[in-house]
Amino acid sequence: MYIGTSINESPVxxxxxxxxxxxxxxxxxxxxxxxxxxxxxxxxVALGLLIPETDDVKTGDTVTVQIKDMGLxxxxxxxxxxxxxxSDATGKAVKATAGNYILGQALEAATAAGQVIHxxxxxxxxxxxxxxSGGGNG
Length: 138
What we know:
The protein is mostly beta strands and 138 residues long. The chain has strands at 12-16, 28-30, 37-38, 48-50, 62-66, 69-74, 84-87, 93-95, 101-106, 116-126. It is 0% helix and 35% strand.
């Protein structure tokens, strides 16, 4: 899926794990006062995604977090191509709903939880909780 280059040169950061993480590869993580942690509140602000090579992590270990561009994310439910995505309470991708922080956009569909899809990490802010008003031509 990376056309024109044989490697993904997406920006990543090395960060300290603020919690033990089992099976953390391809999950969304957030910043905390003690280090990065798997997003544990649905729709919360996420920093990025743990890279595919992430093994089980102990508190204090260094982890690599992809913070922008195209990456891979494990889904928590079916999603369609083009869906704006937020994290569920386990760090998996779900369709963003009102009040959720948009971390990415689905570049391919998933039909069931646990599948891995390509996403564009966009960090687009929050889905509005109410419909926009005004703006008519009249």
